Amino acid sequence: MRVSRNLSVPIVTTAMALALAACGASGGADTAQNAGAKGTTQGGGSGSSAEHTDDISVGVKPDAKAVALLPAAVKSKGTLSVAMDLSSPPTSFMASDNKTAIGFNPDFSRLIAAKLGLKLKVNNIKFDTIITGLQANRYDFTASTMGATRDRLKVLDMVDYFKAGTGVSVPYGNPQKLTTHTLCGHRVAVQSGSTGELQWLPLRSKEDCTSKGKPAIKAVSLPSVNDALTQLVSKRIDAVMYDFTGLQWAATQQPKTFEVLKPLVATKTVTVALKKDSALTPAVKAAIQSIIDDPKYAEALGRWGFQGLGIKTAAMAVPQD
């Protein structure tokens, strides 16, 4: 069940706001970002990792085989449009200048555009509206750490591009002594439209709780991980279930504020997605494989702390539910 955003949530501290990159991630807003993102590598918030605002695609040459697969209309337009929710560091968020889209997903999207010889426009929209936007042809593709489910594969073409996992974050010190398998009866926040909401929390609730006569996990659906972590700090919820990379990033940015539980809830390969049977799919798939085969792939993974999460083949996704 989706619940509306609680407007009475207390404002987070300045340091946390920087860490979570909450500024500028307004739902529905379009943020034009050409492939040539400006800026240099900067220091982030208090205790943060580097804020990489430089354009990783500079110097990357188009891949002739991928370009040859482009539809004529796209090639003549010269621009590729990507949808992502820029409220989820370190995969997709706004730099502190509130102008530049940064993170692994913007980096990877810029590399896709470069391999296809195109400019990139980044559209900043809420995660749970991305699929309908693709279906309505408002965007060409999404790189938003989206897992392949049976329902999504009915309406999307999905191509693997790296590995991720779903984890659970609790307040530092884990005062309630929770584990990933003892969340029964607790309030656990998930992002609206995510696999945490649609797949992993219901699965854990069934297997760990209701099948054993225990109370179900109380799902609290929120627009973004920023909202969830803010509510965790204010003790409105007990835990957050979300992409491990994002939770680990928040824990690193805010020492002694958050703690990520082990083991993870799930690991998965995530996908770049396009509208079902899109004429662009063959070209994008070829571009992704070209990136994977390029040293730039390891560079993109490494600068966001994703070492070891790379894959070798840009395969068409299979359902992971």
What would you say this structure looks like, in words?
The protein contains eleven helices and 14 strands. With 321 residues, the chain is α/β, with parallel strands linked by helices. The strands form three sheets. Strands 3, 7, 8, 9, 10, 11, 12, 13 and 14 form a nine-stranded mixed sheet that branches. Helices cover 30% and strands 24% of the residues. Strand 5 and strand 6 form a beta hairpin. It folds into two domains: 14-163 and 272-302, D-Maltodextrin-Binding Protein, domain 2 (3-Layer(aba) Sandwich); 165-266, D-Maltodextrin-Binding Protein, domain 2, CATH 3.40.190.10. The protein has helices at residues 14-20, 64-67, 72-77, 104-115, 130-135, 150-155, 195-209, 225-233, 244-253, 281-292, 295-302; strands at residues 41-43, 50-52, 79-84, 87-88, 92-94, 101-102, 119-124, 141-147, 156-171, 187-191, 218-222, 239-243, 258-260, 266-275. The protein is globular and about 60 Å long.
